[in-house]
Design a protein that fits this description.
It is a single chain. This protein is mainly α. Helix content is 81%, strand content 0%. It contains nine helices and no strands. Helix 2 crosses helix 5.
Amino acid sequence: MISAALATLETDEQRNELSEFYEKNKNRLYFIAFSKLHNKESSEDAVQETFLRLSEEQERFFSLSDSERVIFASVVARNVAIDMYRKTTKADTVELFQNLSDENCENPTEEELLFKFTKEKLTEFIRGLPALQRDVLYFKAVHGMTIREIAQKLSVSENVVRQRLFCARRAIRNAFRKGEI
């Protein structure tokens, strides 16, 4: 699984150390990635990417003590998983905003122009919401998923989903009141 990372190392000693480190810590790094991604395959990919990054930082990695290596690898795994999550969320967010846009009107009336302007501001505001709120709003508004379905998809409780939806809606409502949208 880490053969690509091992191939980039210079000495057999480094390869052996990284292989041993992999065997001891692969499950820990997998669970870190899974806690962010909630997907088996993506989490496995994140672990592979983590070891590639560790091999790219070989001077730093091999200069650390065993306990420092675990901490360093855990941080790298978390960051890799977050990066992967953001990339997938960004793709979902793009779909959300494409669904919100409506460019079918050739000669818009004043009311339609005002609606389009408001929708653009709303879209921009939603993009600025924290990712957790934006995701829940996306699943609810675009996919019409229930609270239970969203909770299962994100591997969180239904109460967490309700709270995130409440916060997202409150933020939008406050922005409307302040005239930001």
